[in-house]
Structures are given as C-alpha cells and as structure tokens.
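pasting Charged multivesicular body protein 2B for the record, 214 residues
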Amino acid sequence: MASLFKKKTVDDIIKEQNRELRGTQRAISRDRAALEKQEKQLELEIKKMAKTGNKEACKVLAKQLVQLRKQKNRTYAVSSKVTSMSTQTKVMNSQMKMAGAMSATAKTMQAVNKKMDPQKTLQTMQNFQKENMKMEMTEEMINDTLDDIFDASDEEEETQDIVNQVLDEIGIEISGKMAKAPSAARGLPSASASTAGTISDEEIERQLKALGVD
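structre below
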C-alpha cells in the first residue's frame, strides 16, 4: 500500500514514458505490417482485373493502393518521430542528472569555502616553504661537512701510505747497507768502518728525491 502513495521520481516518470513509447512503436509496426499485407492483396487484385480487361475496377483499386501506400509512409514518419521523442527523453534525463551532480558539487564547494580560511591557508603554506628551505640548508651543510671530513681522511690516509712506502724502501736500503757491514766476530770495526756503515742525512735526502718525495 505504501508503494501506491509513494511520490514518483523523475527516473520513474521517464521509465513510464519510455514504456509507452515502446508500446506505441510496436503498435505502429503492427499497423505497417497489416498495410503491407493489404498492399500485396491490392496489387494482386489489380493484376487480376487487368487480365480480365476491367479498367474501371483497376482504377478504383489503384486509388486504394495509392492511399494505402501513403498511409504506410505515414507510419514510417510517425515511427521516426516516436524514436526521436525517446532519444530526447533520454537526453533530457542525462542533462537533469548532470545538473544534479553540478548542484551537489557546488554545495560541497560552498561548504569547503566556508570552512577554509584563505589567510590561514596562505600562512600555513608560507611556513611550510620556510621550514622546507631551512631543512634543505641544514642538509646541505651536513653533507658539506661530511664531504670535508671524508676527503681529509682520504688525503691523510693516502699521505701516510706514501710515507710508509718511502720508509719501507729506505729501510730496505738501510738493511742492505747494514748487511755489508763487518760483523763483530771479525773484529771490532774501526772508526772509519763505523762511519761507512752509517747512512748520512744526505744519503736519505738523495733517496727521497730519487723516489720523487720532496
């Protein structure tokens, strides 16, 4: 019972109209089929009368055939009109739905604009930009400091490697010279031999220069 007193929506009305239009279209198709059947019968009657030589009957039947064909053509025109009305109804329904969606969107936008404070939003964006710039500057400073530390450490390590290499080579030279010195079993070395077994500062500097170390 409640459905009988329920208020019809636009969609309900359009559905009913479409059902009526489809019913009208089927009725027109049935009428056209009946007219086509009568058309064929008249054509047969005209041929039959023509064979018997009854010209008057042929004229009457021919007039009826002309009227019948005109009526059949009218059914095509009416059918096209019904189809056009159905299409227009669908277009109007679509436009109404679009209008409803736009109305809902406009209401939502109005509600958002009421809640939104332009000045506060602008201030928030400016604060965000400011803090972001600070973060970028801090990150850049940290990266520069780390680069300096690692670069200095690499240079120091490389320098130490070169010094160790030079000292190792000098040590090898010193060991070679010490190996040639007379041992204690052969007697105590003289002052001149002791002096010869000692590498002078000039000798070390010469070897450094030969290795390319200033």
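The mean pLDDT is 76.
Helices lie at 10-52, 55-115, 118-180, 191-197, 201-210.
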